[in-house]
Amino acid sequence: MIFTNPPKETPNGVSHKTFFSSLVNQDVGYNIYLPPDYANTDKKYPVMYWLHGSGGNESSDIWVVERIKKYYEANASAAQMIVVFVNGAGTSYYLDAPDGSLPVESIIINELLPHIDKTYRTVQARIGRVIEGFSMGGHGALLYAVKYPELFCSAVSYSGAFVGGKVRASDGGFLKWEDVSNLFPEWVEKYYCSNPVFVEQAMPYYWISKNAVAIRSDVKIRLTCGALDFLFDRNEKMHAYLSERGISHEYEIVPEVDHSIGKMYEICGERGLRFHDGNVL
After folding, report:
1. What DSSP character marks residue 112?
2. Which site from 25, 108, 235, 262 is most exposed, i.e. has the minimal number of CB atoms within 10 Å?
């Protein structure tokens, strides 16, 4: 893993920073957007944590800030947020590696969040934190929100790559998740070490069931997915599971859109921001 990945260019208001991780004994990078009035006030701001998709890093999706800025420019009464772009270590699925080699989840939850609260003027409470992401990051955003309902009040998943659904086969059909380990044994071994308990707890489903009471009262959830996205079936399954558990949530299917954060955020990013705005302090 490359722990620091400064972008070649950044939108106005975005800076690349690092913090020292005692878990990996080196600096880890993140990008941060500060609202235009941050330097001129002493008020505290809610924070949005953005989680990138598979193969990305903290600099992969920073240009969604342009859409975020447009939303705030058009909605003066909205609660402007600090936005933190997280380094998810490429293909970690935002989990701690079961062999202990790369504790991504622990770095984010136990080190990055406290660092942000210590370094910036933030609302240091659940009601002041929201989380969202795309694909693998959509999975991570929902996973963290339902696993840590004491830390986040709102989660938006764009095209979430939820483990436990189905994957599209090359012939256009679908494969059941239980068949994946037979077809991709190296992938399963790399990410899950063939550990059934780890696999179960890596899924948002486990934590939705375990923390259902707290989620119903404290966490607001919004799922979005393109109708042409290869992950559409996985999002349908997650929507059904949340509904079966009596967990209120928003679910938006975006017509004629495939697996593209650019298209998704252009079409429904504003609705996601409005959703967060209604939930933060």
Report:
1. I
2. 25
Residue 247 lies in a domain: yes
Listed in sequence order, the residues at least 6 apart from 231 whose beta carbon sits closer than 8 Å to its beta carbon are 135, 159, 160, 161, 162, 165, 225, 259
Angle at 215 between CA 211 and CA 243, to 5 degrees: 100
Cβ neighbours, 10 Å, residue 189: 12
pLDDT value, residue 101: 84
1: in domain: no
Residue 168, pLDDT above cutoff 50: no
Residue reference for tokens 């298209």: 263
Residue 105 has a CB neighbour count (10 Å cut-off) of 21
What pLDDT digit, counting tens, does each position of 176-189 carry? Answer: 545 555 544 555 55
3 is a domain residue:
no
Beta carbons within 8 Å of 45's beta carbon, 6+ residues apart:
35, 38, 80, 81, 82, 120, 121, 122, 123, 128
- The total number of structural domains that make up the chain: 1
Rounded Cα distance between 224 and 81, Å, is 21
Question: Residue 50: beta bridge partners?
Answer: 85, 132
pLDDT at 195: 65
97: containing domain? 14-277
Where residue 105 sits, what CATH number does that domain have?
3.40.50.1820
Residue 76, Cβ density class (10 Å: 0-12 exposed, 13-18 middle, ≥19 buried):
exposed
Closest CA to 262 of 72, 135, 106, 150: 135
Q: What is the pLDDT of residue 164?
A: 59
pLDDT of residue 171: 46
Confidence of residue 174 (pLDDT cuts 50, 70, 90): very low
Q: Identify which of 271, 208, 226, 264 has the alpha carbon closest to the alpha carbon of residue 71.
A: 271
- Amino acid 191: pLDDT: 57
Mean of the per-residue pLDDT values of the chain: 89
